[in-house]
Structures are given as C-alpha cells and as structure tokens.
Specification:
By secondary structure, the protein is an alpha+beta fold. Helices cover 28% and strands 26% of the residues. InterPro entries: ANL_N_sf (IPR042099).
Length: 281
C-alpha cells in the first residue's frame, strides 16, 4: 500500500495494521516518500524495513539529494531527471526555486533515522518556512511538535496549529475530531460543536493532553502552555487547508489572529485551556 500527499499519523497506521492482522492474518506493507509535483512527484522512497510514520527514506534511483544546514535543521534539495526544469513563463519564480547548483528547493527539512547508519534513510523534520523563534531567540520546530501533539491527543485531535512567534511561550489551536469528542462528551448528534467542546469530559481530556505534553517537554520550544479548541473546521475558501486536507499553518494563524491574541491574554477567557506551573486548568 502506498500513501502520499500528507503524512499518516502513527496511531492511524497502528489501527490499519490491527485491521489487516484481524482480516488477513498479517500486516500489509505500507510505503511513502518525499517529493512534490515539481519532482514528478516523488524524489525519495522509504523501504519496507524502515517504513513507519515520518520516515521518507532514501533518494530514488537517479535523484541526488543535497542537505543544506538551515538553522538547527537540514534542508532537503533535489536534482535529477524527474525534476522539472522550471515554471512555465515564470523565470523569476524559477530562479527562486533552484539554488546555484541547480537543486530544487523543496522547503522541507529531514534528519537521519540514525546518523551512524545513513543507509537506513531519513525522517521528515518539518517545513522550513513554518518554524519560528520565541522572543527568547529559541527556535520552535513546528513539524515534529505538531506530530507529537497529534499522536499524544489521538483520537481526539484531528490537527493542530502552533503559535508563539515573538512570544514568550508556545500555544496551540486545536482542530478536534468532532465525532470522537461528541462520543467522549456523551452528547447526541444534535448538540452544537461549541457545547461538545465545553463539556467537562472533553475539557478534561485536553487538559490532560497539556499535562502529558508538559511531562515530556525538554524545554520552552516543546512546552505547550495554552490551548484553544476550535469549533469551526479549517476553511478551504480561506486557504486554511488544501483540497488534500493539509493544514496551512500560516493562513490559520493570520485568519484567526484574534484567537491567537486570546491565547496570550493576561486574563484569558474560559475558552483557553492553560498550564500554570505544573497544573492545567
């Protein structure tokens, strides 16, 4: 089985494995890679031996990958016969998309599964353009943090947007999985989304998520202090999500700037779930 266009969370992967074993008596091998429309489309592929959530593997035959230091990350750039020569009648865009050696700049970061064994392949390490600095100068790596929150919040977290640019701490906007939250709340299908998210079982679930994330954090870049549950899903017409379901972090932060401000209010409203010291409330 091959999947593309977006990452597959490990908890969903595990559930597919469980269903395959239940139905067929064995797992079904799943593969993915890394690429873009401009690379026709995959430039890297994972092996069955290393295949798991986040692994993008090694360069495809004939493709050369260059890893360029970018802050604390390695930016992935590719060259090969499958990479487009440029954008039709857009020389300025083409020039910005390739480096001086003719490598196409994907805008993605990767890291080795094991630096001591590079032949095992690489993992996706987020989008370079999504990362930001706190006002302390500390870099926040959005991709890995987002994946960790979705995994820790499964099955009640559908997606998450990371806030904190030029702020003193990280906060998040959560797009909940409404059917799962409705089930947790014990409310009928007729209940409004806002009522579901305000219910005590749902609030306690996400407060516990903040506690769990805090217990595993290694510093300010991975410690989430506040969160807000969004009753309104990502809007395609506002470019908050693609037709494939991928979240546009920047668009959500811009379109919902008032909610971001609410996350950082001195006296936050009851809609804001917050971690004070080691206590979430």
């Amino acid at each position: 089985m091959f999947f593309a266009a977006a990452g597959l969370s490990q908890h969903i992967w595990d559930e597919l494995d469980r269903l395959a074993i239940q139905t067929l008596g064995c797992k079904v091998g799943m593969l993915t890679g890394l690429g873009a429309t401009e690379t026709a489309p995959s430039a890297m592929f994972a092996s069955l031996e290393e295949s798991q959530s986040g692994v993008v593997g090694l360069p495809a035959r004939g493709v050369t990958v260059k890893l360029v230091p970018n802050g604390s990350k390695l930016e992935c750039r590719v060259k090969g016969p499958s990479v487009m020569p440029g954008y039709w009648r857009q020389p300025e865009v083409t020039a910005r998309s390739f480096d001086d050696e003719g490598f196409y700049c994907l805008g993605d970061a990767v890291k080795f599964i094991d630096p001591a064994e590079p032949q095992r392949g690489m993992r996706f390490d987020g989008r370079i353009s999504e990362d930001f600095k706190l006002d302390t100068g500390t870099w926040v790596s959005v991709g890995p943090l987002r994946a960790r929150i979705i995994e820790a919040g499964a099955p009640h977290v559908k997606d998450v947007v990371i806030a904190g640019l030029d702020r003193s701490y990280v906060s998040i906007l959560i797009f909940p999985d409404m059917p799962k939250c409705r089930e947790l709340a014990g409310l009928g299908n007729g209940a409004e989304n806002a009522a579901v998210l305000a219910s005590e079982p749902v609030r306690e679930r996400f407060l516990q998520l903040l506690r769990d994330l805090d217990s595993e954090s290694t510093g300010s870049a991975s410690r989430v202090r506040r969160a807000m549950l969004l009753a309104e899903p990502p809007r395609l017409d506002a470019n908050e999500a693609t037709d494939k379901g991928s979240i546009n972090q920047r668009a959500v932060l811009e379109n919902r700037a008032d909610l971001v401000d609410a996350l950082y209010a001195v006296e936050p409203s009851e809609d804001v779930l917050r971690l004070d010291g080691n206590q979430a409330r």
